[in-house]
Amino acid sequence: MAASSVRARERGGLRPERRALTREQAEGLIEAAASPGAPPAEATDSGSGRRRRADQRTEVRDALVVLLLTTLGPRVSELVRANVEDFYTNDGVRYWRIFGKGGRTRDVPLPDVVAVALDAYLAVRAGGDGEKALLLSWRGRRLARGDVQAVIDRVQRQVDPGRRREVTPHGLRHTTATHLLADGTDMDAVRRVLGHSDLSTLGRYRDDLPGELEVAMGSHPLLRRRRGQAVQDDEAGPDT
Fold it and tell me: Whole-model pTM?
């Protein structure tokens, strides 16, 4: 599905910013998050005009927030509830133990880029006095649900305008589901990543991709061997 891009369905009153990003928009956001601009030693707080110290900067944390939302699609409540101890390594793979709805937990492996962003953030995280929360404000307090949208918006400002579109945390959850499924990821695996108890729920988080039926039929799994044999025959030539 590499040539496809997402075109979200109209779902009643669902706001556009809650729908999945296109592949180009999602990649632009991930690139901006994975390569945050190096901040100067001092910067101006846009809200008050005061100067902020380098240790009050939040670019590395913001990068981690966006990468987690875009690639793993957690609920906002799960994200802000996360503690440092919820992330662990098993057999060389980093995992996030997510505490979800209904008291259910799920262990989700982190993509390498996200694991690197996590390590970068933990190296500069200014937690003190035994603070367990993973995501902290520059004052050292657990990030609130209402802060997450501001984080997304800050990273979006680094994206090229042609690839930028307003999106909510819930829209990034749609983005995760849509692109994992479009790439052929097993539906049950996607269900486990998102923390759904039922496969049928995935339908609410998946947006249509134009041309996906044509792509699927053009690479039918039951015909691949036959198509491969035809290619070999063509390459062999008429005299073999």
Answer: 0.76
- Residue 97: the pLDDT is 97
The string of pLDDT tens digits covering residues 163-182 is 999 999 999 998 998 888 88
* Residue of 173, 174, 191, 206 marked catalytic: 173
In the structure, what pLDDT confidence band is assigned to residue 185 with cuts at 50, 70 and 90?
confident
Catalytic status, residue 95: no
Q: Among this protein's residues, is 206 annotated catalytic?
A: no
Asked whether the beta carbons of 69 and 152 are under 8 A apart, the reply is yes
| Residue of 170, 174, 179, 191 marked active site | 170
220 is catalytic: no
